UniProtKB/TrEMBL annotation:
Protein known as: Transcriptional regulator, Crp/Fnr family
Domain HTH crp-type: residue ranges: 149-222
One of the record's GO molecular function terms: DNA binding
One Pfam family matching this protein: cNMP_binding
Top-level taxon of the source organism: Bacteria
Gene3D superfamilies: Jelly Rolls (2.60.120.10), Winged helix-like DNA-binding domain superfamily/Winged helix DNA-binding domain (1.10.10.10)
InterPro entries in the record: cNMP-bd_dom, cNMP-bd_dom_sf, Env_Response_Regulators, HTH_CRP, RmlC-like_jellyroll, WH-like_DNA-bd_sf, WH_DNA-bd_sf
Amino acid sequence: MDQAPRWTRPTMGTLFAGLEREPADALLDAATHRQFAEGTTLFHQGDAPSQLFQVSAGLVKLSRVNPEGEQTTLRFMGAGDLVGCVAVFQQSPFPATAIASKPTSVLCWGAAQILDLTRRYPAISANALKTVGDRAREMIDRVAELTDKGVEARIASVLLRLAGQVGRTCLAGVEIAYPVTRRDVAEMTGVTYFTVSRILGGWQRQGLVQLGRVRIIVMEPQRLAQIAG
């Protein structure tokens, strides 16, 4: 018997990866399409995990405030990324605040809806589990960077991660552009803005990066990977 065709919508993200038509249709039918203006909050740190979001277009910034009131940028989420997945699937409060960094459209599911779909369709459950596992590994890697690597290695690691997550290929290399800023890079590496600017300036003189007022172009990713270790 021939197998049912795979779902191949190019704009669908990780939750839809490799699904047969029935579970993909069930996911899409249950979703609500929402638009968020730049600067709009999707959810706050500590909120109950009532909804799961998947970015269709735009960019979402995740940040966390520690007990001393210091804010740290954790991650940027682009098209196809699930926002709030760990909290929703583990039924724990959102550990960070999610804000649209530019006009953003999303697919949205209520927590009860998406949990019911994971129970009904093992393939959706497998995709959800993989996504949560990938996020956990990324957080472990980041903790290891902060404790085991020097400043230059941490900055190189963050630039490469941002290039892979939200970068755009251009003639000179991979562009990381506004709304991602050097201050975000500083928060993600646990160093000061001035340290990031000084090191990036040195790398520009070496031809590793090209700096603009609102962008960083990664020109030599292999050399940055060597610095990142």
